[in-house]
Amino acid sequence: MSNIKRIAVFTSGGDAPGMNAAVRSVVRTASYHDLHVYGIYRGYQGMIDGDITKLGRGDVANIIQRGGTVLKTARSQEFMTAEGRQQAYDTLLAHDIDACIAIGGNGTFTGAKIFNEEHGIPMIGLPGTIDNDIFGTDYTIGFDTAVNTAVEAVDRIRDTADSHNRLFFVEVMGRHSGYIALHTGISSGSGSIFLPEVDNDIEGLITQLRKSAKRKKLFNLVIVAEGNQNGGAMEIAAKVNERYKEYETKVTIIGHLQRGGSPTASDRLLASRLGFEAVNQLVKNSDSGALGIVNGKTKLTSFEDAIIKSKKPKESLIQMAEILAL
Ligand code: F6P
């Protein structure tokens, strides 16, 4: 058993649907164990500024279904400096905080790792990002909701694309990660998917368009991850237009629409499980690391591995997507 009695929870980096469910789970589980819980607003920046408040069971009522994060979030530049981190630590000392639960993505985990090394405060990271690019967990909180939102949008686009026989380039989020694009592309039956991890070739797409036209196969949708090396959907559509004029093309950028909205049941469940296990972990011992669920089981991965060993979409899934689109 650890001696941890007072914990703080915060969300940091890009918000993700399901973060509130994780906060609720942390607070309720901590209350069950008679621990005191503090919520820090605006992530590491709020920790520096002393923006912290005590949370009880009732404070997290009616938030499980809400998107965004009630604790707000930020990408703090100040926390990247040793002075900033010292100020943040002073806030924790002033409130006698023994450990923190940080919900966020890669940047959040990097901050947690440095903070833990510098000040010795136990830190548990929960994977909260729509990008699903965190090593040490099969899925991140928010990914399922973002994909469902994108698929719903693409289904609507397909209706109008089909009616006019137009070719749509739909851009989804993912500067460095193609998970949203791949899962959205497969689930919406798109003709082609451009990922940051793949060296997609415009010429290949044009050949595919020509072949489809010959077979009179409808080809309405190309899903583009914002971080593809050919550029975003605008750039790719322009490049295709220059070389292939048979289709009228349109571009839709889904953007932040896919970050908001009520979390799916799957994200609420994942977030609830992770919040619950994070507190149980801190009750047991004061180990730090990133908590995830791998093959149905919770697993604590070192921050180092979670940050460095980036997770990429499986090659076999990318190949499957190509075969299904033929
Ligand atoms: O990391 C989550 C994410 O939504 C990425 O997919 C996207 O590239 C980025 O955040 C956008 O960040 P911001 O909201 O700060 O523009």
Topology:
Elements: E1 6-11, H1 19-32, E2 36-40, H2 43-49, E3 52-55, H3 82-94, E4 99-104, H4 106-119, E5 123-127, H5 143-164, E6 167-172, H6 179-188, E7 192-194, H7 202-214, E8 221-225, H8 233-243, E9 249-253, H9 265-284, E10 289-294, E11 297-301, H10 303-308, H11 315-324
Parallel strand pairs: 1-2, 1-4, 4-5, 5-10, 6-8, 6-9, 7-8
Antiparallel strand pairs: 2-3, 10-11
Helix pairs in contact: 1-9, 2-3, 5-6, 7-8
The structure holds 6-O-phosphono-beta-D-fructofuranose (F6P).
Plain-language structure description:
- 43% of the residues lie in helices and 17% in strands.
- It is of the alpha/beta class and 326 residues long.
- It folds into 2 domains: 6-142 and 263-308, Rossmann fold; 143-259, 3-Layer(aba) Sandwich (Rossmann fold).
- The strands form 2 sheets. It has a 7-stranded mixed β-sheet with strand order 3-2-1-4-5-10-11, with helices on both faces.
- α1 runs parallel beside α9 (265-284) and α5 packs across α6 (179-188).
- The longest helix is centred in the middle third of the chain and has 22 residues, at 143-164.
- It is elongated and about 70 Å long.
- The termini are far apart.
Principal-axis shape: elongated
CATH top level class name of the largest domain: Alpha Beta
Radius of gyration: 22 Å
Count of DSSP-assigned helices: 11
DSSP helix fraction: 40-55%
Task: Report the mean per-residue pLDDT as an integer.
Answer: 97
- Catalogue the ligands: 6-O-phosphono-beta-D-fructofuranose
Widest sheet, order of strands: 3-2-1-4-5-10-11
Terminal-residue CA separation: 57 Å
Helix and strand composition category: alpha/beta
- List the uncertain runs: none
What kind of assembly state do the chains in view correspond to? single chain
Number of strands: 11
Instruction: Give a quick account of the main beta sheet: strands, pairing sense, barrel closure.
Output: 7 strands, mixed
Beta-strand level of the residues, as a percent range? 15-25%
The name of the CATH topology of the largest domain is: Rossmann fold
Number of domains: 2
How would you spell out the order of helices and strands?
Answer: EHEHEHEHEHEHEHEHEHEEHH
